[in-house]
Design brief:
- The structure is a homodimer of 319-residue chains.
- With 319 residues, chain A is of the alpha/beta class.
- Chain A folds into 2 domains: 213 residues, P-loop containing nucleotide triphosphate hydrolases (Rossmann fold); 32 residues.
- In chain A, 55% of the residues lie in helices and 13% in strands.
- The first copy, chain A, contains 13 helices and 7 strands.
- In chain A, helix 9 links the parallel strand 6 and strand 7.
- In chain A, helix 3 crosses helix 6 and helix 8 packs across helix 9.
- The two termini of chain A are 26 Å apart.
- At the A-B interface, helix 3, helix 7, helix 8, helix 11 and helix 12 of A face helix 3, helix 6, helix 7, helix 8 and helix 11 of B.
Chain lengths: 319, 319
């Protein structure tokens, strides 16, 4: 590690925001020298509570997060927000953090808001999110909040980095709730129905509660029962209640019950898998390049096949 | 390979639809015996033209594809459609194919429509799409069309399996087009502005044409210049033109110019990478399970770190 990099580590540990921002930029740029840095940062970290917030577009996530950050700040907590945008090739992306930044917390030194957008690699955004989180978690933040706009597998993967996941829902009709059933129960620790004044709000709360009850019956090993919180992010109603539920969930995890440990292990297994895939990708792009090129021709000629080639590469990668 | 599996291969080669459907189901279930089957199928295949169609929700993809399939059928071509739904945990998914199936082509033996939905693994849906395509491509289809609803990285990955990609756009205002610029130019071979009667249609065609011209200037090595086609899927206007452009693009590729070969190699490199990642995932889930479990504890205690663990796993995987 370079002398300058050691200084950066010390600055990050001391809470120096610009040093952290510089390291996250290097994560985004896939700087190979970051691996040694991230190893050191990981071993330094682990004090922040990592909260994930996701939900469909238009559910009012940015407003709610802004209220939540305001609540935590009034209680003297320091908060970092990582806004992760799995930007579509159709949307351009990376607007979440900017939207937040423009809201209430600019100029508050106890809040750091950073956005990350898709880098175009398969699985790369979630891996980069884990790396950025490793940087932030080595700093003296009380809470690190990961936000993502929930529209697919990428978002579920990104939420896997959080110890506690808040899933935002807009009030909706019965069909939508039915359709949402499949995935929803797997990733949320706390459900929020925002826009509490909507005519379908109470009905949505009730249906979510039924869905959670069903999930608890199907998974008897679960000890934490996800609560449903009603909020009105624009007025701040329900935000204190949401913050209290987040605390409750961390307290339940900290009690060291087997389920919480099991989840931490699952999370780490996923994280290691992401890093491993990234290492493999780098090898494929780098030194193995020409070797791979020579083996592509027989595959394209259908004298060999991609499965046989993948097997050879796996053997080589470890050797 | 089992005797029954050999019979299945022969049936697929002869175009037996139910055998193909059974194999695709085994792909979805991650049947480990499918690897040997897929190796054989890959070596048998390569005759179908693989066309990808994607675009944002609401652009009229299903209707357009149905018209396109009708056009090809009237010209005596046999068509398989693989509708891939990177279903959000919020939507439930797997509706694309059903929607198509209910339209015009039920009961037509020259058309096979199959949907695939997210299996919950990172990158797994695109790999499974490649495997399903390997099954279909070993059959006597003239055209295999892959449809996906374009809202993110997963869809871009899925489109990488197609030799020719049709990107559908709805008429839109200037800001949206600006925002779309980033990713759009990278994945489309043919652009379609559907809903040709919309007031913004001509303007959108013009802006796309400008965007393409810019892309051509930036990438001098590109020989194929993506055309922009206006369609009205509900009436069938422009569909014959679109089919002709697809033919033109395949003809340009078949001329074996360096650019087309380069693309085929890029596509295969991506495919091999997906298979490799999948092999690694399987190993992590299977025999390496307990070995990995024992190494997680020091990582969770921050005496080690996930990067060091990933490195050890990579060394082991190949050994």
């Amino acid at each position: 590690m370079e002398q300058d990099d050691r200084k950066l580590l010390d600055a990050v540990a001391a809470g120096h925001i610009r040093s952290a921002a510089r390291l996250i930029t290097r994560v985004e740029r896939d700087d190979p020298a970051m691996v040694a840095m991230l190893q050191a940062l990981y071993r330094m970290g682990g004090r922040s509570k990592v909260v994930g917030v996701t939900g469909p577009p238009g559910a009012g996530k940015s407003t709610l997060i802004s209220s939540l950050v305001g609540h935590w700040r009034r209680h003297g907590l320091k908060v970092a927000v990582l806004a992760v945008d799995p930007s579509s090739p159709f949307s351009g992306g990376a607007v979440l953090g900017d939207r937040l930044r423009m809201m209430d917390h600019s100029g508050d030194g106890g809040v750091f808001i950073r956005s990350m957008a898709s880098r175009g690699h398969l699985g790369g955004l979630s891996r980069a999110t884990g790396d950025a989180l490793t940087v932030l978690d080595a700093m003296p933040w009380d809470i690190v909040l990961i936000e993502t706009v929930g529209v697919g597998q990428n978002e579920t993967d990104i939420m896997r980095h959080a110890a506690v996941v808040v899933l935002l829902q807009t009030p909706m009709g019965g069909d939508d709730v039915q359709a949402a059933k499949a995935g929803i129960n797997e990733i949320g620790d706390i459900f929020v129905v925002n826009k509490a004044d909507h005519k379908e709000a109470d009905r949505t709360v009730q249906m979510l509660a039924e869905m959670i009850a069903l999930g608890q019956r199907l998974h008897a090993e679960r000890i934490w029962k996800p609560p449903v919180v009603k909020t009105q992010a624009t007025t701040g109603d329900g935000v204190a209640d949401l913050a209290a539920q987040i605390d409750r969930c961390f307290a339940a995890n900290a009690n060291g019950m087997p389920a919480a440990l099991h989840r931490a292990r699952t999370r780490m297994r996923f994280r290691v898998g992401e890093i491993l895939r990234d290492m493999l990708d780098r090898r494929m792009r780098a030194e193995d390049g020409q070797w791979l090129e020579d083996l592509l021709d027989p595959v394209l000629a259908r004298e060999s096949d991609p499965y046989a080639l993948a097997q050879r590469m796996l053997e080589r990668a470890g050797g």
